[in-house]
Amino acid sequence: SPYGTLVLTACMDGCARLWDAKRGTCKLALHHVNGDAVAAVMSASFSPDGSLFVTAASGDGAVRIWSTDSGNCIRAFENSPTVWTAVFSSDGASVLTASMGAVVKLWSV
């Protein structure tokens, strides 16, 4: 996180995990599920102020923005089937995604 208190991981098991950096304990485990299918989380990154984070999943093409405090999904974007990465802009107002086939999109948050 921007303040070094949290660590965010993206996992092939379809889960993004938010960890307490000091204790090494998992605070949140958030699953990318589309129907009955679990999609591998390819990337996860914090917003500049750390209040949100974005995840990108392959398979379902979902890009989701989550609240760091509550773990609630506050926004979702449907992208191409294989999203490799998603990152916030420096002002936190947009999310940039990169997908298979050299597809790059800019989304308003």
SSE blueprint and pairings:
Blueprint: E1 6-10, E2 15-20, E3 26-31, E4 33-34, E5 37-38, E6 41-46, E7 52-57, E8 62-67, E9 73-78, E10 83-88, E11 94-99, E12 103-108
Antiparallel strand pairs: 1-2, 2-3, 4-5, 6-7, 7-8, 8-9, 10-11, 11-12
How would you describe this structure to a colleague?
This protein is mainly β. The chain has strands at 6-10, 15-20, 26-31, 33-34, 37-38, 41-46, 52-57, 62-67, 73-78, 83-88, 94-99, 103-108.
Features:
single chain, 109 residues, mainly beta, four-stranded antiparallel sheet, three-stranded antiparallel sheet, 0% helix
Task: Provide a brief overview of the structure.
This protein has strands spanning 6-10, 15-20, 26-31, 33-34, 37-38, 41-46, 52-57, 62-67, 73-78, 83-88, 94-99, 103-108. It is mostly beta strands and 109 residues long. A hairpin with a 4-residue loop joins strand 7 and strand 8 (62-67).
**Envelope shape:** globular
Helix content: under 10%
Mean pLDDT: 89
Structural class: mainly beta
Backbone CA Rg: 13 Å
Low-confidence stretches: none
